[in-house]
Amino acid sequence: MSAKQQSFKRFARCFIVIGLCCTGCIRFPVPHEYADQQLLLALFYNTSVTGNSVPYALPVSGAKAWLLGSYGVNTSGSILTWADQSGNGLDAVSVGTLRPTQTTNALNGHAVIHFSGTQRLNMGYLAMAQPSSVFIVARRTSAGTINTFFDGDANRNNFNHLNTGTYSIYAGTALNSAVISAASYRVLFAAYNGASSILGVDGFADTNGNAGATPMGTPMIGADSTGAFQLVGDIAEIIIYNKSLTGAERTSVTNYLKTRYGI
Please, are residues 113 and 79 in contact by the beta-carbon 8 Å criterion? Predict the structure, then answer.
């Protein structure tokens, strides 16, 4: 064990002892130099962290944000934070008590984040002009209403599953897919790029057209920016790039997601 690890262990023990004596009454700053600060927070507040960091890289580098249901999920019965694995610190955080939950071993052995129609998460400020690319592995389990997987801020760059069963992206203009899907997990892709936008499902059946040109700001997951059109369903992974991807790059990421989740 390194000197740094030994120091961290002693520090963590102090937290645990203090926490046993006065749980929740005192809050201490976590030293910046400790990479395991999220674990320490979990120890003090009686929460759990699932897989602090992803042990592999994406097939296409340069992701702006990367969220997986099996990694960086800080829970206390429900989700407090969902840590961004891209290294850019764009974590998704709970909105008050409106917290989704984690379901382990849900999709090909991997965890997913479950939304039951009243929960949502806010991400950090992206400030991304078009073009941008978004992958989402998700499903809805409630038909007959609009379910929002992702809204890039005030109906900018959102991704919906419509009550008709089709998918839709919107950045000022709606672009709807021809694919009708019920309660199945799908690898969804959106290229937000004005009149050259793309909506893809499972790497095929692309819809090309105009989705509008508004930029992305502070995304919300599981509802639109007003808290409406809430998702009843599950999200396994979200990957965001602040650039256009080539056809080969897009295929590479899609195949990674389909293989990981058995889709």
Answer: yes
Sign of CA dihedral 155, 94, 145, 168: positive
Q: What Cα–Cα distance (Å) separates residue 120 from each residue in 49, 127, 148, 231?
A: 19, 20, 10, 8
H or E segment and range at residue 49: strand 48-50
Q: What is the tens place of the pLDDT at every residue in 202-237? A: 998 789 999 999 998 888 999 988 888 999 999 999
- Contact between 197 and 211 under an 8 Å Cβ cutoff? The reply is yes
Q: Give the residue extent of every domain in the chain.
A: 3-44, 48-261
Residues 157-167 have pLDDT tens digits of 788 898 888 99
- Cα 79 → chain centroid: 12
Spell out the residues 6+ positions from residue 10 whose beta carbon is closer than 8 angstroms to its own: none
Domain 48-261 has CATH 2.60.120.200: yes
What percent of the chain has a predicted confidence (pLDDT) above 70? 79
- Cα(155)–Cα(169) distance, rounded to whole angstroms? 10
CB–CB of 261/107 below 8 Å?
A: yes
